[in-house]
Amino acid sequence: MYKNMRLLKDIVDNTPMPIAVYSGDDLKIELANTAMIKTWGKGDQVLGKNYLEVLPEIKKEDFFQQATTALKTGVPFHATDKKVDLVIDGVMRTHYFNYSFIPLTDEEGHIYAVMNTGSDVTDIHVAKLKLQSAEQRLRIAIESSGMGTYEIDLATKKVTACGNFNAILGIQGEISNEELLAKLHP
Predict the structure, then answer these.
(1) Which DSSP category does 58 fall into?
(2) SS3 at position 138
(3) Architecture of domain 2-126 in CATH?
């Protein structure tokens, strides 16, 4: 039994995904793996402290309420791409997380704690914003130039036109790939 407990502890501590477990109305930190401690950036002396004591900067956010609701109701809470401003190593930084608060139950089905897992998706969020910005700039450039563009779905052969393309080629409505080629290369 001891060997299994040690194995479980090693797995949780070494998992790259942040994991923490909270109990009670004040969400006392019962467990925080290395990844969660690094994510919080508050040092490694967090066990036994209350959630808001360690993360006072998130008092204005919904996290505490989401966790306590999961603890009281037994209904897990999941969020995606949620903005989180954290003071890490004394500096306020904006991150985006996919995270969950999952109730933990004993053998009788009583909820005794809530587990918090999370993934920092800041890089993905920033890349998505850059892609959206680039697409918007391209669309504005095409529209302001008077040009038009088209795409052909090679699987379905469906043609999708954008901008001034239909007016340039005198097309009304949808056009097949063959009709498009005939107009482009008469």
Answers:
(1) G
(2) helix
(3) 2-Layer Sandwich (3.30)
Residues 6 or more apart in contact with residue 59 via CB below 8 angstroms: 52
Cβ atoms of 117 and 76 within 8 Å: the answer is no
**What is the predicted pLDDT for the residue at 129?**
80
Domain limits, CATH 3.30.450.20, in the chain: 2-126
- Residue carrying structure tokens 């897992």: 117
Span 147-158, average pLDDT: 81
Look at residue 2 in the predicted model and tell me its pLDDT.
65
Distances (CA, A) of 56 to 12, 49, 98, 150: 25, 12, 20, 52
Q: State the CB neighbour count (10 A cutoff) for residue 120.
A: 18
User: 141: part of which helix (H) or strand (E)?
Assistant: helix 122-145
Pairing assessment for the beta strands 159-163 and 28-32 based on DSSP bridges: unpaired
Q: What's 79's DSSP letter?
A: E
Is this prediction's pTM over 0.90? no
**Averaged confidence pLDDT in the chain:** 86
Q: Looking up tokens 């919080």, which residue turns up? A: 40
Joined together, the tokens standing for residue 137 give: 């700039």
